[in-house]
Amino acid sequence: MITSERMAAVDANAAALGVPRKQLMESSGNAVAREVRALADPGASVELLCGRGNNGGDAFVAARFLSGYDVTVRLLGRPESIRTEIARENWAALGAAEIPTESVTDAADLALDDPDVIVDAMLGTGVAGALREPERTAARLANESDAAVVAVDVPSGIDADTGGPTGSSAGSGEPTGSGGSAVRVEADRVVTFHDEKPGLAALDADVTVADIGIPAAAERFTGPGDLLGLGRDPDSHKGENGEVLVIGGGPYTGAPALSARSALRAGADLVRVACPEAVAETVQGYSADLIVRGLSGDRIGPEHVDRALELAAGNDVVVLGPGLGDGDGATEFAREFLSRYAGRAVVDADALRVVPEVDTDAELICTPHQGELVGMGGETADDPEERAALVRSFADEVGHTLLVKGAVDAVSDGDAVRLNRTGNPGMTVGGTGDVLAGAVGALAAVTDAFHAAAAGAYVNGLAGDAAAAELGNGLVATDLIDRLPEATRDE
Ligand SMILES: NC(=O)C1=CN([C@@H]2O[C@H](COP(=O)(O)OP(=O)(O)OC[C@H]3O[C@@H](n4cnc5c(N)ncnc54)[C@H](O)[C@@H]3O)[C@@H](O)[C@H]2O)[C@@H](O)CC1
Ligand SMILES: [K+]
């Protein structure tokens, strides 16, 4: 099963792996034509109802694969209004190949000549709201005809994620819109691409899943698609893109500052640091952009839990651990803090060891390296696939998301697993882990824990690769921070 949102991410990852959209559309169209061939013999009449997006583009390709059939490609809209370049190219290819096309803008001009097969390629996953005209009328005509109806990817008017009509937030199958009942194509067959869609199972149609050549690696590994949707809403206000509290420092002062600055560069609006008073000035000295809150004394200990919880309450995410040290007081603090905190937290460094034993309502993203993973009671292996399986089962056991750092990072929430290949040996320098924890913290303020961990690993490694390209093995952790804004751009 794959959601529309994940499908878009995987599509972008496939393009980054050298399998561009145009190739996917070619395979999709080919798969649609195969379905038509299975339904009707050559000579049969096939009416392709095409929208202006890529769903329609799939049908333009299908028409090319249907030589020997009496094909009509009917575009709902003007050719100039075809939305994507790839669909436009495939439309133009029809003309060049002398395959008959028609374009209809007015619903009143729509009529179907009693075809044997109708291909519904009006709307796919890019639909917004209930069907408009002329799609609405075309859907009615398709439903009234005796033809076998083959839907491309998803029947037009159906939400691929819910199975309900498009434009209904509940997706419950209830009619929507201004009083009228929701029109949708009642397909006999659906050719859907790459993987099953959650909304198709409940439909009264035969569903074929077509392999369109998206490599498994596009799902297995992080890629640029994992950043889609993490961009800033242009209308947002200060604080809406994430408020992060870093709790750490004491024996080390650089670590909490690195995490905090990283969170800012990865997109958080406000980042606060709670650290011992004795080092507050030093931490502040690293950057005027940080809001530093001192906790009495020179080490964080259990006496600070109340104050830390108070500070945490105003933030979306806590990053716990950078520079905290492994003293008894610090460990006790981490244990008690987590047992009383119920929000979302990234747990790193010396705070990691308390995770397996602590009883917490918090949602944690733990970022251990292999050694810390073993310290937590987890297992590791040389083979990356085996290691990923072990990370998954350990994440399931502890009930939190794990991001296990290595040459290939492994991320799992106990269910899904994602691997990250960005990064380089130059990043073994001190502080890069603090940068990662901060970046994941910033992302966890705007998306779910698993997505934040995967995207954080990806951007951190990407920033490291950009730094290594310039500085080789001379890179330092702050070089990554400087390159995070570019790495986190989602276009
Ligand atoms: N990785 C992928 O996601 C792939 C997608 N492919 C195809 O691309 C489709 C998605 O393409 P698009 O994102 O271009 O979207 P669609 O082709 O689903 O439709 C988008 C366009 O339809 C119009 N529209 C939107 N809502 C409407 C409504 N309620 N009534 C009437 N018109 C409306 C708008 O002009 C919009 O731009 C998939 O369903 C699939 O068929 C395939 O080509 C292969 C790979
Ligand atoms: K469709």
Automatic annotation (TrEMBL):
Keywords: ATP-binding, Isomerase, Kinase, Lyase, Metal-binding, Multifunctional enzyme, NAD, NADP, Nucleotide-binding, Potassium, Transferase. One of its GO terms (molecular function) is metal ion binding. Residues 156-181 are annotated as: Disordered. Pfam families: Carb_kinase (PF01256), YjeF_N (PF03853). It catalyses: (6S)-NADHX + ADP = AMP + phosphate + NADH + H(+); (6R)-NADPHX = (6S)-NADPHX; (6S)-NADPHX + ADP = AMP + phosphate + NADPH + H(+); (6R)-NADHX = (6S)-NADHX. Its cofactor is K(+); Mg(2+). InterPro entries: Carbohydrate_kinase_pred_CS, CARKD, Nnr, Ribokinase-like, YjeF_N_dom, YjeF_N_dom_sf. (6S)-NADPHX binds at residues 54-58, 124-130, 153, 255, 323, 369, 434. Its EC number is 4.2.1.136, 5.1.99.6. Residues 222-491 form the YjeF C-terminal domain. K(+) binds at N55, D120, S156. This is Bifunctional NAD(P)H-hydrate repair enzyme.
